Amino acid sequence: MDRPQFRRAFLHPRYWLLWLGFALLWLLAQLPYAVLLLLGRGLGRLMLLVAKSRRHIVARNLQLCFPQLSPAEREQLLRKNFESTAIAFFEMAMSWWWPKARLRKLAHVEGLEHLQQAQAAGQGVILMAVHFTTLEIGASLLGQLHTIDGMYREHDNPLFDYVQRRSRERHNLDATAIERDDVRGMLKVLRAGRAIWYAPDQDYGRKQSIFVPLFGVMAATVTATSKFAKLGRARVIPFTQERLADGSGYRLVIHPPLEDFPGDSEEADCLRINQWVESVVRANPEQYLWAHRRFKTRPEGEAKLY
Predict the structure, then answer these.
(1) Which of 52, 71, 163, 183 could serve as a FRET partner for 196 with CA atoms 20 to 30 Å apart?
(2) Beta-ladder partners of 150
(3) Is Transmembrane helix included in the keywords of this UniProt record (predicted)?
(4) Whole-model pTM above 0.90?
């Protein structure tokens, strides 16, 4: 995709309210990191009261995935998850507008050599991630250290799309934004020896998925990871990030490449991916994006879960 360009149309009065929102968010983002965390937690508690449909989705997902927890334990996890989701709003502002040096101080990175080794070998990388609430800031922090291309879906509001893309790409000036449905573009990038961020942990419907267990629930799981790895002659390198409880920033881990992947079958590959997703989510369940209806698509004959 071409670099985003400013358009005079963005000065039209219909965008003034959005410009005002950006200005207020920019001002808030100048506050100390510890204060932004406090604001995020407060906003999360407010969201619990007003976002009833999202609360229902999160509660249902936690019930499905953690049946061993008591109702009180799941309620506590739900509250923490809403707080984490709200903190992500301020992390987005930090990623977009903090000076790079200030942002870099929050990064605690492990395993960067795995990306560097693949780059030295001229081999493409599928940087396999999951949808944690820290997704935006994690990508920005890693992008300062290594070029990472990304799958991208254009926002419906052209001004928001312009600000979002421009702000993201400032960390990664030679990165490529690839439309989510542009398979040819993704394979081209991988065969050129580049790394691309890719998260296979959401429900993209029946057409491009098969059903394998996730947290003991049959989940529609995309087969694209195996296909991209095979056709793009790429390594699959898992990537995780977490917000540290002590307020010192973020731990980013680039894990060793998956061995013997793709395997003997798409079903085995999808199961292996879901088992990995489950393991990393269990390590930080409050920071996962539970507001996504992960089990929306059901096998034939099964009742809806939401």
Answers:
(1) 163
(2) 177, 197
(3) yes
(4) yes
